[in-house]
Amino acid sequence: MFEAEIIKPASLYRDARLWLTQAPASDTRVLEGVPHVHLRLWIDAPTGILSVRLVDLGPAKRFGTVAT
């Protein structure tokens, strides 16, 4: 399943994505609200596909493989 495979660190899609991470937080944090992403892109092709996903990489395992 694409949704599960794309978020694996050693994914089959690792050469077709940009994976940005932050160092683990030193304290407990709760993120509330709607996330916003601001991007400035240059594409050297007539068309392009862009997708952004916020993924919780923490150990809590609160979510399934597909968002609901």
Distance between the termini: 15 Å
The helix content, as a percent range, equals under 10%
Shape: extended
Number of helices: 1
Helix/strand-derived category reads little secondary structure
What is the CA-based Rg, rounded?
A: 15 Å
Order of helices and strands: H
Average pLDDT works out at 78
Tally the beta strands.
0
As residue ranges, the low-confidence spans are: none
The largest β sheet comes out as: none
| Beta-strand content estimate | under 5%
Essential attributes:
68 residues; extended; little secondary structure; 1 helix
How would you describe what is shown here?
The chain has 68 residues and is largely without helices or strands. The protein is built from one helix and no strands. The chain is extended and about 45 Å long. The model has no long low-confidence stretch (mean pLDDT 78).
Describe this structure in a few short sentences.
The chain has 68 residues and is mostly loops. The chain is built from 1 helix and no strands. The chain starts with a helix and ends in a 63-residue tail after the last helix.
How are the SSEs ordered, and which strands pair?
Layout: H1 2-5
